[in-house]
Amino acid sequence: MQPDPEAESQAETSPEEAPADPSPQGGRGRSWMSRWLYAAKVDSWPKLLVPCLFGQALGVSAAGALDWSALALGLGFTLFDLLFVVFLNDWGDRRVDRIKRQMFPDGCSPKTIPDGILPARALLIAGLIAGVGALGLAALGQFAMARPSLLPAAAGLLLIFVAYTLPPVRLNYRGGGEWLELVGVGVGLPLFHLYLQSGELWTRELLMLPGFALLALCSAVASGMADEQSDRRGGKRTYVSEYGNRAARALVERVMLFAALLWAVSIRLAHVVPAPIGALALVVVLVNWRRLRKLSPQATTNAFEAQRLYKHYLHQAQWRSAMILVVVIVGLTLLGWDGQ
């Protein structure tokens, strides 16, 4: 897909140089702290915190005990990783964010750079500092906890994001962003935390990852729904901008069902939780799948409120089911359950 000529002409003006939005929604009237909290997008943090805790729980199961220092270090790493991703993603997407604000001035939330909440340079510097912090904690864990592969694994996770949205690779602009998110959020991050908590890489707990990874893929595809037209105009090739809203919803709904089936098989084979508890997690997925399917005909292109609710049900399916497993896995392991 070729970028729209209008988008190319808009790209000639640097987003940093364009005037900030003087409306109350923009940076004017906000305190320094509120600007950074807004830019940090705290509401989106479960997207990485849930994989972190899921991986930590699998590590607890593999080790047969909870290492509190590994949990604390893992949460610290994830916090830095979150800020690295959020700040640099806004920096990398500033052009298409500006296009969306121009197309839908009243139809989307304020954008950090286009609306003058924070300058692009500040986000770039903050994101790089967060990345250094994440690598620093990984280095500490590698040497303090005898995890020789921890720092390379952390660097790999950060590089996945760099390949996702930053030049020169920018796979999220070339049609591969959703698959990269599957690898990073659905597999890489939980595996990192499993290793941090247990010191093991090849355990039966790995059988729990495929279903979780497919739900991460669904989330990645659905995240582009609200940006379909602005991404298309800006030359950003996501699944939604390439194949359309209807095809994206069809993919999400089918893969979500397959993920539930795969998770059912995985739970049975891994023996990480009792089957009835595993069934409860699957019920959460299926109930939210049914809600999502019922809403689907309304979540069409530019139907932003319906799309928001559609993604809410998807996230409930992914995050709540995973957190049920987290609580049960850790609780049963501490009580001495061996999975047999």
From TrEMBL:
Pathway: Quinol/quinone metabolism; menaquinone biosynthesis. GO terms for biological process: menaquinone biosynthetic process; vitamin K biosynthetic process. It is found in: Membrane. The chain crosses the membrane at residues 72-91, 122-144, 150-167, 179-196, 208-226, 247-265, 271-289, 317-337. Its main location: membrane. InterPro entries: UbiA_prenyltransferase (IPR000537), UbiA_sf (IPR044878), UBIAD1 (IPR026046). GO terms for molecular function: prenyltransferase activity. It is a multi-pass membrane protein. This is 1,4-dihydroxy-2-naphthoate octaprenyltransferase. It comes from Plesiocystis pacifica SIR-1. The lineage of its organism: Bacteria, Pseudomonadati, Myxococcota, Polyangia, Nannocystales.
